[in-house]
Structure to design on (972 residues):
């Protein structure tokens, strides 16, 4: 008898157990690391299985930025952030179906979570880097990482910068964050097994998860878990079948993030009775805000229409692009703000002209489309306002300094990175919720294998997934360790 | 031991069977009726369980319109429809993830399916009613029921009218269709049980579906099925939890269609190992195309922008409305085309003016937004073209005959009916596909409990769900009857 991720093994089909532990954690990204750490700190015996050759997962590919509120770093930088403001912002982040309990708990415990991260040795210089950036290349550790100052978020929640990045020079602080978490995990005595791919869960007669089968050295290793299994395997950005079935819009995009995000954790959870929700949702972004003056440009779709306030989070703008008809959008800039985009090879200059009418013609658009959009935008920008799309005055510039250019962001040709946001439903303790709403006994999950705090790409902010991974990873680890051994 | 839709009962927990049959069909809409009929015609003993007090389901609430191609009705009306044109159209209907096999089979067998429907006694007068209508109030039986003549469909598939409606005077031919199908079902000797709510499936050791528990007179009736269970229970438009988890956009809309569409069939299928796909997708429409001259108006969103060619299918236009920012859109009309909308109580006149600038002001929009949109539209309409949104010349009218009006379609206040389009994955035989891709033995499904031919509201056409229900309902019934008894 052989199980698959979607098809758990029954305990009676396990002839012998190769390994016994209290808690098995699957996946060594930030969620798995934090779950393992907290389970170990709670006194549990913990084994951690990672399919790759080392720790990291998608977390190591990130900027190492965690979305936090109410910290002394914010206060030192002159920002008074409140639990209520954070909760309000997170509620908007939840889209049409926010998990209000998770928003509440995360807002309340966010300062303590920051303390815990520092206690693990994650360095925070505590300095604020102003401006609109994707991730700091300096060793500063507080940035604006979302749409806090932009419409409509600024109206619903008092803005504060909440992107707390690890102190690190250069891009890619996520690897450094993972190195620290890995060191703590190893110090805590967690039995770490790399190149160990989870194959299926094991359920007993009561449909309780009591073990997991892991493939090591091409042999199945049957792991008996006395207290629980924590799934921390990431999303399904690398699983073409699942993408087609649940989030087919992503199939147009070039660059999934997360080498091992093959959906197997969601499959195991669903196979054990878990509920997968919001499976159509995904994050995407194209690095169009570098150099930052480009944010003073305006985006138009193939009908020459604006569609979003360009000063909100770059991922929110990118996600809105994908809702436009056609296959591309254009960023319109004048000479004063023009700069070669970060990914100039993939964000091409589609048209240049001495007038906006010339740009319009060169793009093959009819008269009175794009040019009219710019003229109307300019008229109001000159008054310091954007009555149609609500771009904040700080980013408004009359685009009248020719020559003018249209930069093309093409959904298939430009670099749109993405990862999935749908996944297992969990409660605030990290218990996987069954389709009937009750927890699946013995099964826990955190990070992108779940549908967590950030629920749509439209409302995403940088640092929210690592917030989800680290905070609810800890919760899941503690909850897994807490039950009586069976 | 008691099962739930999501939690099947194990055969060993059934102490005695109350009823034995070859095939159990769950749900007495068009899909269930056709499945029962074909199973019975194939020689199987069939029991049909319906939770309501009579036949009908959402099918009886429809216009009784079936999307068909290659029929003599089309030829008599002067339309040469081809298998290829129908297949191409259906492929577009499938959105980002069309089921190419189903498109192929349906296109090939559509003429035969029409013959079968007539053999069952469904009357077709065979006359064509031209124009743009929701459903015929005359007894004509062929109409344009989708986006065939509109951009971009007309470019990809040779247009033909394919809405084959039952010969019936007035709206609501779906009830008449169901009465006929019910009569055939009863003549075929199907054991019909009304007020019989399916509670859970029964699985044997091999995870084969071998029965179903049905609640009748408030007692569980254990039904042993020798050959198979066909789920034909409809979508989940009445299940608020499932809507929130999978299709939260629908929660803004007022009017789900299908009293008993509570998602229980999807739950049973998933509980037995089935794969639920495209769960975020839904059909919606607001009856804005009556009187038809309104189609010559143009829709703008809250930024005063057009967003769709208004001459495509009313449901496609309505679904596009829901993608606009804000809570409403406006239909702009001049005096020449103005008419009180069908649902005038819920589609209100939001502004009237002697000029478009006055309408713009009255709606609280900034200068050079809505009025500019109309002027640009008018400029090109005068030339008989719509270069930005590709409305066909027949529906283009310069909107210059004041006074002018903006009709408000409000997502929460206007009548937006909807039903869900996500559901169980099935193959062309109607077998429910498990999450690993292989059929779940003994389990079949058809209609809105599945993700079938129509996969998104953006590409829907009237008659596609009844096509799915009747055609793949027949397939499912035949497949269920075909297996060896167990």
């Amino acid at each position: 008898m052989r199980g698959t991720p979607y098809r758990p093994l029954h305990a009676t089909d396990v002839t012998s157990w190769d390994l016994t532990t209290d808690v098995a954690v699957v996946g060594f990204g930030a969620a798995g690391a934090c779950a393992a750490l907290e389970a170990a700190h709670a006194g549990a015996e913990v084994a951690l299985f990672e399919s790759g050759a080392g720790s990291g997962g998608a977390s190591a590919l990130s900027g190492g930025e965690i979305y936090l509120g109410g910290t002394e770093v914010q206060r030192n930088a002159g920002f008074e952030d409140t639990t209520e403001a954070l909760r309000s912002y997170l509620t908007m982040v939840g889209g049409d179906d926010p998990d209000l309990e998770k928003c509440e708990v995360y807002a309340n415990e966010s300062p303590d979570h920051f303390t815990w991260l520092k206690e693990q040795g994650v360095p925070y210089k505590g300095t604020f880097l102003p401006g609109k950036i994707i991730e700091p290349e300096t060793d500063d550790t507080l940035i604006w990482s979302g749409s806090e100052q932009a419409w409509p978020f600024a109206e619903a929640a008092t803005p504060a910068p909440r992107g707390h990045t690890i102190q690190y020079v250069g891009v890619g602080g996520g690897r450094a964050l993972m190195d620290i978490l890995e060191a703590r995990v190893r110090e805590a005595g967690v039995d770490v097994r790399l190149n160990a791919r989870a194959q299926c869960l094991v359920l007993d007669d009561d449909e309780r998860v009591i073990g997991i089968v892991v493939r090591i050295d091409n042999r199945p290793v049957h792991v008996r878990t006395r207290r629980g299994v924590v799934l921390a395997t990431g999303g399904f950005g690398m699983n073409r079948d699942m993408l087609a079935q649940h989030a087919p819009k992503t199939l147009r995009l070039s660059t999934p993030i997360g080498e091992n995000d093959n959906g197997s954790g969601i499959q195991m959870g669903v196979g054990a009775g878990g509920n997968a929700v919001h499976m159509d949702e995904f994050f995407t972004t194209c690095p169009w805000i570098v150099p930052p003056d480009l944010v003073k440009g305006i985006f138009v779709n193939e009908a020459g229409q604006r569609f979003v306030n360009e000063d909100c989070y770059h991922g929110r703008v990118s996600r809105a692009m994908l809702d436009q008809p056609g296959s591309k959008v254009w960023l319109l800039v004048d000479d004063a703000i023009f700069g070669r985009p970060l990914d100039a090879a993939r964000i091409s200059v589609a048209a240049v002209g001495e007038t906006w009418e010339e740009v319009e013609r060169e793009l093959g658009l009819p008269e009175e489309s794009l040019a009219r959009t710019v003229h109307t935008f300019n008229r109001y920008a000159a008054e310091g306002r954007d009555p149609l799309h609500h771009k904040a005055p700080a980013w408004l510039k009359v685009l009248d300094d020719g020559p003018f250019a249209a930069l093309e962001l093409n959904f298939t040709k430009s670099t749109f990175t993405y990862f999935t946001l749908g996944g297992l439903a969990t409660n605030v303790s990290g218990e996987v919720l069954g389709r009937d709403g009750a927890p699946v006994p013995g099964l826990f999950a955190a990070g992108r294998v779940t549908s967590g705090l950030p629920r749509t790409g439209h409302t995403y902010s940088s640092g929210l997934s690592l917030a989800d991974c680290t905070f609810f990873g800890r919760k899941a680890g503690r909850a897994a360790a807490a039950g009586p051994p069976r």
